[in-house]
Amino acid sequence: MRTLFLTLALSSACATPALAGAGPQRNFLNNCAGCHQMDGSGAPKAGIPDMRGVVGHFLRLPEGRNFLVQVPGTANSPLGHAETAALLNWMVRAYSPGQVPADFQPFTTAEVAQLRQQPVHDVPGTRASIVQRLQGLGLAIE
Asked: 39 and 52 in contact (C-beta within 8 Å)?
């Protein structure tokens, strides 16, 4: 049993070398990857969207940017506001670098603190509305 535990611990550590020492990446692994997967692919059939090549588009609309902070997983995260801002800034660049607008302003601690006080209650409906607006801008997004 001890060998099995050691093998699992080592294989887990080896599977994520890039995440081992970094703050936002580690926070993603510990707080987001359980649903969104380590590669950001999510579980679309279970209602957890694939962030790859998509999440950066949300920054094109104020309500899309807000949504990234207000979804329950972010709004209710045990991370502090500064850690959450750093995580979001890392996440959009890690999973959707080609879609991040050139004029992107990084999330700030104050912005995260304010938006966390206004959680989204209809996550699927709000996301669908944002996606519809993004599609109206000619962006291929689901």
From this structure: yes
- Angle at Cα 110 formed by Cα 37 and Cα 49, nearest 5°? 20
Which residues are registered as beta bridge partners of 48? 43
- Whether 119 and 78 have beta carbons less than 8 Å apart is answered as no
Please say whether the beta carbons of 26 and 20 come within 8 A.
yes
Give pLDDT tens digits along the chain (142 positions). Answer: 444 333 333 334 334 334 444 698 898 888 787 778 888 888 888 888 888 999 999 999 999 999 999 998 899 889 999 999 999 999 999 999 999 999 999 999 999 999 999 989 999 999 999 999 999 999 988 7
112-115: list long-range contacts, CB under 8 Å, 24+ apart. Answer: 112/69, 112/81, 112/82, 112/84, 112/85, 112/88, 113/81, 115/66, 115/69, 115/70, 115/75
pTM, two decimals, is: 0.79
